[in-house]
Amino acid sequence: MTVKVSCIGLKGLEGYRVQAEVQISPGMNSMVIVGLPDASVKESKERVLSAIRSLNCGGANQKIVVNLSPSEQKKNGPFFDLAIAIGILKEMGHINGEIPSDSLFLKYRCLV
Fold it and tell me: Entry's SUPFAM superfamilies (predicted)?
């Protein structure tokens, strides 16, 4: 089964909807992010997996594939981390409730 979680990407000052689709299957421990991610998005796999491991929710021998769509739009920044983490936790069975299709998840950090 594929879990779909909506989030927001930024192109300049304008936002656009991104769908993070997460699928977990048996295999070697790995995580792949596809859908035109730049280096900062590819680094999110380390941030997300570290956070999931710190919650003792990580599973062994799992291959995680994350597709960020629309695939033709370049993705940049750490904005997708929360949606990816929620998708992984839902796919692993740690989140039981439904994720509303009209909800968006955004990681935001304010530097003061």
Answer: Ribosomal protein S5 domain 2-like
